[in-house]
Amino acid sequence: MNLEALSIGEIARRSGVSAHTLRFYEAEGILQPAGRAGNGHRRYRDEDLAWLAFVLRLKHTGMPLAEIRRYAVLRAQGEASTGERLAMLERHRERLAAQIDELQASARALDDKIGLYRGLLAATGERA
């Protein structure tokens, strides 16, 4: 299929987000306004799908919508904003690394508790 002519429904299906969310991202300036077919329906390009995948990655990793919106504005400015975009991504990466550290500490605490319970069950001959 030619990705140069994907409808909003096709983009929604491929990306896993609703058409409503795509319209919202467009209204918020996160997605550039889609091109339109002769019948007025939105038509998306390869670049739109790739950008949406990156936006969803930022969202999935906890970047606030306001920051994603700011990043999108900077992206639209082109090379002049490269330094600021880099700084934003570096700050986000630092926050993500801190979250990963916290999650790993939580996983270790859970492992300790699981080990304790398994030991208690083994001592009594019970099974989980």
Automatic annotation (TrEMBL):
GO molecular function, a single term: DNA binding
Keywords, comma-separated and alphabetical: Coiled coil, DNA-binding
Coiled coil region boundaries: 86-113
PROSITE patterns cross-referenced by the UniProt entry: HTH_MERR_1, HTH_MERR_2
Keyword rRNA processing: no
InterPro entries per record: DNA-bd_dom_put_sf, MerR-type_HTH_dom, MerR_fam
Domain HTH merR-type: start-end pairs: 5-74
Keyword DNA-binding listed: yes
Name assigned to this protein: MerR family transcriptional regulator
Species annotation: Rubrivivax gelatinosus
Classification of source organism: Bacteria, Pseudomonadati, Pseudomonadota, Betaproteobacteria, Burkholderiales
